[in-house]
Design a protein that fits this description.
Elements lengths: L1 H42 L23 E7 L4 E7 L3 H6 L1 E3 L11 E5 L17 E6 L2 E14 L13 E8 L9 E9 L2
Parallel strand pairs: 2-3, 4-7
Antiparallel strand pairs: 1-2, 1-5, 3-4, 5-6, 6-8, 7-8
Length: 193
Amino acid sequence: MKIFGNVLIILGIIFVSLFGYQLFQHDQSEKQSLVEAKERIGEGNQSSKGENNQPSPDLFKAKHNEAFATLEIPKLEKTLPVVEGTDPDSLKKGVGHLTNSLYPGQGDQIVLSGHRDTVFRQFGKMEIGDRFIVNVPYGSYTYEIRETEIVPEDDTTVIREMGEEVLVVTTCYPFSYIGNAPDRFVAYAYPVD
């Protein structure tokens, strides 16, 4: 019986160590992506210059898996990197931008997604009226949450043309769920003039 107990303790230590290592790797990846995003914002994107040499949101495009922007969440005192794509590799680096959606300033839906147990760890504190600030190479855009909803994980109806600029931020729900969460929390944030 003592051997069985020792085996369980060793297995527990191994699992905790693996989890800690993965969390450490994610944090390092996120920090590196944040540095890259800030550099990209600082440099601006020469290919997004319009005729009057001012940055143009209409011409902007990010490359897959590229850290190109930051998402500031003042209520949570966080600045997160935004990476092009929502595949597992992109989400390991930060908040993912859904490739089929638009970018700030382009006049319709912008979709950002992130894991509730990494970049959006404290997302349960967000409320109507809280703000997001998206910094991209051609400017800074502020959005205010006007509504939220909870949808099943496979519900893709939230991805659609909306006829106006809306920042849609999604993450897994419930926030404290262990394992693959069955739902998604969706926040709809609108531009602040």
